[in-house]
From TrEMBL:
<dbReference type="GO" id="GO:0005634">
    <property type="term" value="C:nucleus"/>
</dbReference>
<feature type="domain" description="Non-structural maintenance of chromosome element 4 C-terminal">
    <location>
        <begin position="222"/>
        <end position="308"/>
    </location>
</feature>
<feature type="region of interest" description="Disordered">
    <location>
        <begin position="118"/>
        <end position="144"/>
    </location>
</feature>
<keyword id="KW-0233">DNA recombination</keyword>
<dbReference type="InterPro" id="IPR029225">
    <property type="entry name" value="Nse4_Nse3-bd"/>
</dbReference>
<dbReference type="Pfam" id="PF15412">
    <property type="entry name" value="Nse4-Nse3_bdg"/>
</dbReference>
<feature type="domain" description="Nse4/EID protein Nse3/MAGE-binding">
    <location>
        <begin position="75"/>
        <end position="130"/>
    </location>
</feature>
<feature type="region of interest" description="Disordered">
    <location>
        <begin position="172"/>
        <end position="201"/>
    </location>
</feature>
<feature type="compositionally biased region" description="Acidic residues">
    <location>
        <begin position="122"/>
        <end position="133"/>
    </location>
</feature>
<comment type="subunit">
    <text>Component of the SMC5-SMC6 complex.</text>
</comment>
<feature type="compositionally biased region" description="Basic and acidic residues">
    <location>
        <begin position="178"/>
        <end position="201"/>
    </location>
</feature>
<keyword id="KW-0234">DNA repair</keyword>
<dbReference type="Pfam" id="PF08743">
    <property type="entry name" value="Nse4_C"/>
</dbReference>
<keyword id="KW-0539">Nucleus</keyword>
<dbReference type="InterPro" id="IPR014854">
    <property type="entry name" value="Nse4_C"/>
</dbReference>
<comment type="function">
    <text>Component of the SMC5-SMC6 complex, that promotes sister chromatid alignment after DNA damage and facilitates double-stranded DNA breaks (DSBs) repair via homologous recombination between sister chromatids.</text>
</comment>
<protein>
    <recommendedName>
        <fullName>Non-structural maintenance of chromosomes element 4</fullName>
    </recommendedName>
</protein>
C-alpha cells in the first residue's frame, strides 16, 4: 500500500489504475444525484424528505466505488448540498413557532361555559327572544370543572395556572424621533476669507520683521536671545517675537550661536555661493518655549523691560468683521 492510499476498508483504497469505464460511471451517477437536489434548491418543500434520504443512501452505496480524488470531490459536493437541503427543510418546518393566543383561548372558554358569545353563536337574530339566555346569567363553571376532573382529581393550587396565561406578549415599541427644527434666524453663513485678508496678514508679518531688524542694527553687539525676544509683560508677544526672529535667521540676516554657554544673536552678512562650496550648510533648529521657560528667563536674566516695543493687541479681520 502506498503513502497516498486512503484506508477505507479492504476494497476502498486509492487506485490510480481504476477501470476508466467504472470511473466514468461513478461520475455520471454522482452528477445525476446532484442534479436532482439542485432542481429543488429554491423550493425545499417540494423535495420530500424520503426522497432526500434516498439520494443520500444511493450516494453511500456509490461511495464504495470511489477510488480517486475527483470522484471523492463529487461525493463531498453532493453531501454538502444534501445537508444544506436538510437544513432548509428543518427551518421551513417552523416547529413550535406558533404563539399561544390568550384572547382566542378565553373566548372559547367563555363560549364553552355558556357565555354571551355562546348565546350569540347558538341563537340566530330571527329566533324567539324568549329562548335566549339572559345576558346577566353566570358562567357554568361546573361544566369546565367536570372537564378538569376527568384529567386530574387533585385540587389545583394557586400556581397551577402558571403557563401561557401568565406570559405577556412582548410588543415592540417604536420610538419616533422628531426631526430637529432649526430656527432660520439662528442660522449663520460662514465668514468668507478673501484674498485681501491674507495679504494684510502677510504685510503685518513683514512690518514686524523689519522692526526687529532695525532694533538689531541699533544694537550691533551680540545680544542674548532671551533678552531680545522676551517681553516680561506679555507671553503671547514673546512667542510672536521668536516667530518674527526666525525669518531673519532663515534669510541669513541674523546669526544664532552659543558663546560660552550663552545663546546669542547678532547681525551678519548673507553667505555667498563660495561659502556653501567651502562646506557651509544650512541647519534648522526647533526652539521649545513655553510659559515656564518664559518665567524662568525673566528671573534668570532679570528682564524688566522689553527690547522690542509692546505692540497693540492684534486684530484679525474675517470677512467684514474684526476680531481681537
Amino acid at each position: 500500500m502506498s503513502d497516498f492510499e486512503m484506508n477505507r476498508g479492504d476494497d476502498m483504497v486509492f487506485d490510480p489504475d481504476q477501470d476508466p469505464e467504472e470511473k466514468r460511471a461513478v461520475r455520471q451517477n454522482y452528477r445525476s444525484l446532484t442534479k436532482k437536489i439542485e432542481e429543488h434548491q429554491g423550493n425545499p418543500n417540494d423535495f420530500a424528505t424520503e426522497e432526500l434520504l434516498s439520494q443520500v443512501q444511493k450516494a453511500d452505496k456509490l461511495f464504495n466505488k470511489v477510488k480517486g480524488p475527483q470522484e471523492a470531490t463529487l461525493d463531498s459536493h453532493l453531501l454538502l448540498m444534501a445537508s444544506n437541503m436538510g437544513a432548509q427543510k428543518a427551518r421551513a418546518m417552523k416547529s413550535g413557532s406558533g404563539a399561544f393566543d390568550v384572547d382566542d383561548f378565553i373566548s372559547k372558554l367563555v363560549r364553552y361555559m355558556g357565555g354571551q358569545k355562546a348565546v350569540e353563536d347558538t341563537f340566530p337574530e330571527d329566533s324567539d327572544e324568549d329562548d335566549r339566555q339572559d345576558e346577566s346569567s353566570p358562567l357554568d363553571w361546573e361544566r369546565i370543572g367536570r372537564k378538569a376532573m376527568a384529567k386530574s382529581r387533585r385540587v389545583p393550587t394557586m400556581g397551577f395556572m402558571l403557563g401561557p396565561l401568565s406570559i405577556e406578549q412582548k410588543k415592540r415599541t417604536v420610538t419616533k424621533r422628531s426631526k430637529l427644527e432649526k430656527n432660520k434666524e439662528d442660522e449663520r453663513k460662514p465668514q468668507e476669507l478673501r484674498e485681501e485678508d491674507i495679504q494684510r496678514s502677510e504685510n503685518e508679518t513683514t512690518k514686524n520683521v523689519a522692526i526687529l531688524l532695525a532694533i538689531l542694527k541699533d544694537n550691533p553687539d551680540p545680544v542674548n536671545i532671551f533678552r531680545f525676544v522676551v517681553n516680561p509683560n506679555d507671553f503671547a508677544q514673546s512667542v510672536e517675537n521668536i516667530f518674527y526672529l526666525s525669518f531673519l535667521i532663515r534669510d541669513a540676516k541674523v546669526a544664532f550661536e552659543t558663546v560660552d554657554g550663552e545663546p546669542v544673536i547678532y547681525l551678519c552678512h548673507p553667505p555667498t555661493e563660495k561659502d556653501y562650496e567651502d562646506g557651509l550648510k544650512k541647519n534648522q533648529m526647533v526652539l521649545e518655549f513655553d510659559m515656564a521657560t518664559w518665567k524662568r528667563a525673566i528671573d534668570v536674566f532679570n528682564i524688566t523691560d522689553s527690547m522690542i516695543p509692546q505692540r497693540p493687541p492684534a486684530r484679525t479681520r474675517l470677512g467684514d468683521k474684526w476680531y481681537g
